[in-house]
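Hello,

Following up on my earlier ticket. Below are the two sequence lines again, exactly as submitted.
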Amino acid sequence: MTRTPTAARFPGSIRQVVSGLLIIFLAWHVFASFLWIAPPTPLREVVPGTLLQSYMIPWFGQSWSVFAPEPINGDNEILIRAELRPAGESSVTAWINATDIEYQLAYHNLVPPKAATMGMHQAADFRNVWTKLNAEQQASVTRDLGQDADLKAVLTDEDGRLTEAARAYIAQEERTRAYATEVAYAVWGSRVTAVQYLVQRHPIVPFQSRNDSTIERPDAIQYVTGWRAPSSTFDASDESFRKTFLDAWRSYKERNK
Amino acid sequence: MIDVLRAIVRSLRTLVIDGVSSALEATDRLLRLGYDWFVGSLHALHGSAAARILIGVSIFGLVTSNFSSRGYSYGAAWTEQFRVPPTSFAAMFPFVEIWKWAATPAGLTSVFIVVIVASIGLILGFATQISIIALLVFWVALSQLTTYTADQSDNLIRIALTFLLISQSHRVWSVDSWIRSRRERSVAPAGQVATVAHNVAVVALMCQICFVYVSGGLYKAGGQAWAGGWAIYDPLHVKQFSTWPELADLVMTFGPAVAFATSLTVLVQTLFPLMLLNTWSRRIALVVMVFFHIGIGVFMGLPWFSLSTLALDALFIRESTWKRLVGAPAAFTSSVRKDLEDVRP
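Thanks for your patience. The regenerated structure is below:
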């Protein structure tokens, strides 16, 4: 088999034009990338309209303010407990730190899986929306809500309106409840009748105090919610969740013996 | 009087014409020089092959280290990621089809397997272009199934694959080139358009990584923890980025070392493109970056993120250096063979 080099397949003039177009494309791409990646300045205005945005997003979308301007300096965590139904009386379990248990998958692991940080992401998302609620709303989410009670009803104000912040909060709480339900079912099985979650941000020991053994780690800042009915979206049989979480839990218990 | 004025105008005219024409000539020469650089030959051929291999290893590592817990992360149910598309990619053709497909455990597994096979293709340079297209569809779709697993390396790898597609990274260190050289006596040189496309890809990726470093440095420079010299302490004590907490504690005990590493990070990131201009500073910049990324990869549990960035750094290593690096083991084995032959009676 013989191959024809590209040179022989295209006439010279077409080759020249295509080469020129490729180089012009490169000039535009480099300029657009520069404007997009660099911290935003009025220099972006030299590109008319929304051309820059529509060229870069979604394919060349990116953001490089990683660990900047201030790097992360606290753990985002979700603690979970459940109310169980033994024959007759009900009982409440101890709190388990679900994010800490997940993190066990990454501990002393050179190639940690993404599974180790799922709950951490949810804790951060939850914190973001919780802090945007007003004081009254923050107090009302600490109420216990049974199977029929509706978070929407609790957060609707006197005029019957649901604020933007409340709406965002409801979406994240629903997701946190779904996560807590999966954890509770994995650990305690179908005896679970209610779940409670405690999202917290636990600041690290500040750099300045790192070598001082008398300084204790600062207290966690907690975002409290009441008891909730298990999320109805899930039955007790999400095998892939249960398997990974219980694996992590086993080695977590082993380590903290 | 009139004559004098006319003489002045005349000489002014020649001056302007000369000036303009020499400026035009210089521009023309510069453009020609630039054009010739793009048309003349394939630049960073071994560098682009190294980038191809390292990007392949990054993807292979990412998917294999997440394979056993894939249902918990990429296939999570509680995140509602299969109810509404969680990213703009997941709503876009062809990714939306894979998004629907991956909603079942068997579907997700098959997407993982396609990505693993294609990443091996990329590493080996076997059916390179097809492997890249498969990754641009399946790996991009996989990385966009959920925001819970996302980090910036997903974006960097996608951009790198895009430009590797139009590069000639399969011409060296690849099964493709080995097959071709066995079939034909001599491998056909790249045509003009292929050469220009390759060089465009190389320049685009070089600029990409420079912008990433400089903007990273600039964003950091404004932060209190970076200016104060302790910034690398913070994430290393947050569980998410501290897979070896004892080591992190040990390394962070001596304050001046923490401050040195913190400041060096900001400085080398910000100065990276300038340091490339001179051979020695270029070597220093690349060596610092290698250690910087080994540190991030090992201490912070982000090996594939680090490796994908290093893949693009590889483009800045000279062709002669790559050849020497590869030539060294070959020269060593041939000298050993020669020695062995000498001792033989």
